[in-house]
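S2.1 Query sequence (Diacylglycerol O-acyltransferase)
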Amino acid sequence: MEDRSTPMHVGGVAVFERPEVGFDFELMCKLINHRLGYLPRYRQRVMRVPGHLARPVWVDDVDFDLNYHVRRSALPAPGTDAQLFELVARLLARPLDQGRPLWEAYFVEGLAGDRVALVTKTHQAVVDGIGTIELGQLVLDPAPGELDPVEEETWLPGKTPSKTELMFDAVAETVQQPTLLMESAKAAAGDAAATAVKLAGAVGGVASAMRAALKPAPSGPLNVEVSGGRVFAGVRTSLDDYRQIRATHGGTVNDIVLTAITGALREWLLARKASLEPNSTVRALVPLAVADASTRSYSSAGIVGNEVAAYLVDLPVGETDPVMRLQHISHAMARHIESGRSVAARTLLRVGGFAPPTLHSLGARTAGTFSDRIFNLMITNSPGPQIPMFAANARMVEMFPIMPLVRNHALAIGVTSYDGGVYFGLNGDRKAVSDIDVFAAMLHESLAELKGTTR
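Output C-alpha cells follow.
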C-alpha cells in the first residue's frame, strides 16, 4: 500500500497547556520510555524474509534509540496555528525509516499562549488495536500525575534471527499454509488487486460495502496522482452546535459531521468552477467501529474486537438545502445502525485511555483494502472522552487527528470529539489541495449554515 508519495503513517497533533513546572521535553521522553514497556512492538522493526518466501516479521531492534524517535522542535515564539500546521505538513511528507521501529514523536515548543504540541507518527502496520495501540493513546491519562509507580525494567532485545532461520521458519509455515507462498509472491510482484481481495475478506463489513460499489466513484479534483508534498489544517468546532442541530433535525452527531463536510466540499468544488448537478455526489469511505458478530463483546484491550467496517456514503454535494443534505446522509447511515453491529459512542468511551488515535489507525488500515477507484476521500470519526486528558501533569486542550493519503486521493479527513469540542484534521496533497485553509474556513461556514436552520 505504501510508496514514496503515500507513506502510510497515522497520528495526531495534541496541544497541551504547559503547567508552571514539570512538563518539558525530558519529561515527555521519560513518559514515553516508561510506557513503551507495555507495548513491545514500539521497540521492534520489520525484517523481510529472503526471496519473499513468507510475510515480513517483527524483530527486536538491537540498536533501539529513543532519542531518534522522540525529537524536539520549536516554532519562533509566539508560534501561530498556521506555523504549527505547516510544520505538521512537512513532518507528514517524510516516510518513516523502515530499518527502525515505525514511529516518531515531535515535542513542539514555542506555541502562543504558553502551549506545547506533541505530533505523533505511527505506521498503520504497527497498530492492530489488540496487542498494540497508537502512540497518542499510550501517553494520555484521565488525571494528572507522575509516572506510573512501577519499577523501571531494563529492556533487553531478543536475538535477531539469521537469514537461514527466517527461511527455515518460512518453509515450515508454508508447509502448514501453502497459500501463503502464493500471497507473498503476489505481494512481492505488486499484485495489489489479489492482495486487496484477501485483505478485504478479513475485515468485517467490507464485503457488503464492496457490493455497494458496483460503479466507480465520480471523477473530480480529489482523485489525482498524489505528489510527495503535504498540507495540513486543523479545524475547531463546538460539540454543543452538533447537539443543537441534532435536537432540531434528528440524525446523529456523525451524520451532522458528514453533512458539514458535504457543505464544505460543495463550496470548495464551486470555488474551483466545478459543474454540479442536483444529483452530484462525492463518495466517502467512512470506516466505523462494529461489534464482533459472534461474541458481541467490546474488549477494552482490543478496542472492539479489532473490527472496523468501511461504509461507502454518497455525499450529496449537488443539494443546495443543508437540511436536505442531512436527511440524505442520515438515511444512508441508518442502514449501518439497523445492521445491529454499530457501536455506540458511549461504548467506545469505556475503552481505556484515549482511544481515538487507535480507532483512526484501524480505519486507515481498512481503507487500504479498497480499490482507489471506488471512493473519492476517506473520512474517519471517532468519539473521545468529554473529560480532560493529561500527559503527566499537562492538560491536553486539543487533538487533531492525522489520516494518511492513499494512492490517487488528494484529501483525507479525521474527526475526533474531545472535552466539548469536535476537531477536524485535514491532510491534503500540496499540489492538488494547496488551498486547504480555504476548505477549513468552508467547514466553519457549512456548520454555521446548518446551525442557522435551528433558529
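The first strand starts at residue 9 and ends at 17. Residues 253-271 form the longest helix (19 residues).
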